[in-house]
Amino acid sequence: MWCNEMNDIKKQNGALCGSVHSFETLGALDGPGMRTVVFLSGCPMRCRYCHNPDTWEKNEKEVMTASEVFQKIKRMKPYFGKSGGITLSGGEPLLQTEFATEVFRLCKEDRIHTALDTSGAIVTEQTESLLKLTDLVICDIKHTDQDAFLDLTSYPMDSLLSFLELCKRLNKRLWIRQVIVPGITDNQENILKLKDMAKKYDAEKIELLPYHSHGVYKWESLGIPYTLYGTKSPTEEEMKQLNELLK
Ligand code: SF4
Fold first, then answer.
1. CB-ligand 1 contact for 241 (6 Å cutoff)
2. Phi/psi of residue 209, each to 5°?
3. Is the CB of 18 under 6 A from ligand 1?
4. Would you call 136 helix, strand, or coil by DSSP?
5. CB contact at 8 A, 230 and 211
6. What is the predicted pLDDT for the residue at 154?
7. Using a 6 Å cutoff on CB, does residue 141 contact ligand 1?
8. What is the pLDDT of residues 81-96, one digit of tens each?
């Protein structure tokens, strides 16, 4: 179902278009330096802790051409400095691979650093073209155990593993991320397996991010049942202990 939707790329006057949820300018959390983060709409996963469930569905009202997106990014270029650039996030940017590739192609022509913030949810024959224009992959590994992954995301882990294999084959610069959800991902076995995965796929960095419930109001306003009520954010001490395991 999702692949069909992904291939359903709209053209306006021959131009490649995508569904763009929003922009964040001068973000410092999604890649090196100061960045413009472009959130694309549509995601096949249903992570129980998602703080952007409003990006799950593609929205016909949010359609932009790749060139329009690039022009917005280019305006911020003076602020990127030596290490900043653009990060494509979502949602799941791999759901609009052809559009993402065109945005990155325009950025690379203008020597703008490109980062792809993804969960590796979809791999097609077009993914390699996108990765060849990607300077940095930031890959969110929701869980290291297949069953727990499925339970947390309602989505199988297979695509993620294929995506990581492809990143390795293309020798991509890779950062790995995981959200630490108490009772779900905060166990030693999972963190040690994450460390093994980082080694296997030559990741240069692992970031553990504490779960927070800031997005719950969006679930409530969309009328989607939230299943993590009562889950607290991990403490600084707990995060420190888990980070110690990665050393
Ligand atoms: S992959 Fe990201 S956008 Fe998609 S459901 Fe999970 S947290 Fe939300």
1. no
2. -115, 130
3. no
4. strand
5. no
6. 98
7. no
8. 989 999 999 999 999 9
Ligand 1, atom 7, lies closest to the CA of 50
Average pLDDT over residues 37-60: 93
CA of 173 to the centre of ligand 1 (A): 22
Cβ distance 83 to 135 under 8 Å?
A: no
User: Helix, strand, coil proportions of the chain in percent (round to 5)?
Assistant: 40, 20, 40
Q: What CATH number does domain 2-245 carry, 3.10.129.10, 3.20.20.70, 3.40.50.970, 3.30.70.100?
A: 3.20.20.70
Read off the amino acid at residue 105. Answer: R
Q: Is 119 in the pocket of ligand 1 (CB under 6 A)?
A: yes
What's the whole-number average pLDDT of the chain?
A: 93
What is the signed CA dihedral for 44, 185, 218, 63, rounded to 10 degrees?
A: -30
Is residue 3 predicted with pLDDT exceeding 80?
no
Q: Where are the domains of the chain?
A: 2-245
Query: Which pTM value belongs to this model?
Result: 0.94
**C-alpha to C-alpha distances, 27 to 60, 80, 160, 233, nearest whole angstrom:** 26, 10, 26, 23
Ligand 1 atom 3: residue of nearest CA:
91
Q: Which of 51-65, 78-92, 94-108 is predicted with the least confidence, judged by mean pLDDT?
A: 51-65
- Going by C-alpha positions, the residue among 178, 171, 110, 101 that lies closest to residue 140 is 178
